[in-house]
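thread from #wetlab-drylab

HS: before we spend reagent money on co-crystallization trials with zinc ion, can we at least see a predicted complex? here's what I'd submit
DV: go for it
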Amino acid sequence: MTVPPPLGPSTVLGYPRIGPRRELKRALEAYWDGRSTRPDLLATGQALRAASWQRLAALGLPALPSGTFSFYDHVLDTAQLVGAVPDRYRAAGADPLDTYFAMARGTDRLAPLRMTKWFDTNYHYLVPEIGESTQFRLAGDQPVAEVREARALGLATRPVLLGPVTFLLLAQPAPGSPSGFTPLDRLPDLLAVYGQLLAALAAEGVDWVQLDEPALVADRTGPELAAVRTAYRELGELPQRPRLCVATYFGELGPALPVLAGTPVEAVGLDLVRGRAAASRPELDRLRDKVLVAGVVSGRDVWRTDLDGALALLRELRPRVRELVVAGSCPLLHVPYDLARETELDPALRSRLAFAEQKVAELVTLADRLAHPAPAPAPVDMSAPTPVHPPAAGNGRSPYPVRAAAQAARLRLPPLPVTTIGSFPQTGELRAARAALQAGQLDQAGYEARVESEIELVVRLQERLGLDVLVHGEPERNDMVQYFAEHLAGFATTRHGWVQSYGSRCTRPPILHGDVHRPAPITVRWSRYAQSLTRKPVKGMLTGPVTIVAWSFVRPDLPLREVVGQVAEAVREEVADLEAAGISVIQVDEPALRELLPLRGDQQPAYLAWAVDAYRRATSGASDRTQIHTHLCYSDADQIVAAIDGLDADVTTVESARSGARLLAEPAVAGFPRGLGPGVYDIHSPRVPDAAEVGELLAAALRVLPRDRVWVNPDCGLKTRSYAQVEAALGNLVTAARHARAQPASPAH
Ligand code: GLN
Ligand code: ZN
């Protein structure tokens, strides 16, 4: 027997929600700009949900989830649903939707909730604030309302909720919480609300509810595992409830598996792509009385599934559990909608790809073949077309003091040099010029002239303001990864392959499908032009190998470290060409260094070792006289300070202002042995800090770092700001730096 809908025999744990043509993005932006009304926005949401369900049903998927749509973020939805709205936002709007957007985006007076990455994906969620006095209550009925919406279309759905344990583990203590308090302390109160919600869903006639607990695939302490046990025993023992499926994903469940197995939940979902090893462990037999939701079709990449391999695995698992459901390895939120629209892709590559719709078709096929054995179709060729590069040469650079002296002699920078992170505002005219080039309305020469005039403007502005190390402003780049992907062999880019990053923001991750190499220099032309305009050094600006790979869909047949190694080789060649063109400072950005960090602690050191190695391979060909910068954009760098040190860059710029310079309290920061630029301007905010405020942040840096190592820079690139803001803020950076230079050095240093 197979599990009937709405759980099986095949299902997806979640689906993209931005709309196949980014309808949600447009609807949100129209609403925020006051071009549409709340009813318009709500109607778009409802239409998108209906279209998704109907499409999934048309593709033959028997079991449909509901509750996977969101106007901004599902973690924020959950916070609001359970009443966890910090008091300061309550006055922000009469309607709950306004409160919701105030938490997501801030208002004139209020900063938004903190946003951070969802596990090791490139999706970002809003971090709930939970305190001792957070009043949990069931504050909405969206899960029930969506069940009704689907039913009106003749469809039964399985509501999906963020599980209570993951919700609390992702939250942060509300400001002012006593030390020692953790949001998980509030589990009993939160469970009461989940209990109420489950009862309401049962009363609505709902058969199954899916509770997502991806946090269980990371390392969890004994008390955290005990919380899992408590949560699912308690919810399992509710007198009136639907059957429960706890979905785990993004890795292997590990010690949480026996814990879940010991609770009354009826089904457990496992990621059998990333957590493939679980299938061969004896612990799996603990699930023998449960339904196993077997995630065998990857929700994290765009490659076709090896159906025969997946089928063999499913057949092997079936006798070991009560029943089996064929599922995606995780929600399909992280893949684009439909490959069919990518008509410009190379057919050979296309035949190896699957986006969300194609993955759904795979799930349906797998369940069908599992139920009715049939002759296997021809296998898909998943091998890569060309061989792998040999490894590169090692580190040719001298120790830092030798390099620092050579660079000081060449660059002759003042103390506390002022620089920026690379990008300057991307104006509407620039985007229009790029679109015109694409559409064939502007020729290449016309476009390049447009970019050059922008570079000239940026260089003149920086000279006028008195910055010390200039940038060209990156006007030629649509995106710091896509631009390089477009110029490297081994990558393909899509036309419509949008994936949600946060809220209305989407990216089109490039597809890294073959061996990577650099057919020709990429950035040299622009850097050389910028340098020709000024006697001050202009930084060459490259994206690092880890970041390029982290923000792409990576070929499945090679270990990640080898793929990153190939990209590092290409970056190394670009560094050499920039040097040859007379560029004296080269920045290699690695904002995604921490993103690929494995969720399990025991795998982290090996990752950091090869990631650092790749960075050094990219940069170690530079001469001692070339100053290598790197940029990382998160302040909680503590976990990887050792790795940042290992990068061995001459100067490291990091986000700091945004988090109130907490970074400077890290012991490893005070002892940082090379140049460091803790950001003194929070570029995420339209606010322009005055020179006094910048000066205070600078003084804070000078209290913990030697004066000859400190750089003065914004937190990150200026791409999203306006020229008016940038001009004023950078002017204040220069003023503050000049003022600090005039102060006598403190005796401590
Ligand atoms: N050089 C890039 C820029 O300034 C860095 C962006 C980033 O760190 N995300 O835009
Ligand atoms: Zn940054």
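DV: The pocket of glutamine (ligand 1) is lined by residues 421-423, 474, 480, 541, 589, 591, 631, 633, 716-717, 719 (CB under 6 Å).
HS: ok that's useful, forwarding to the group
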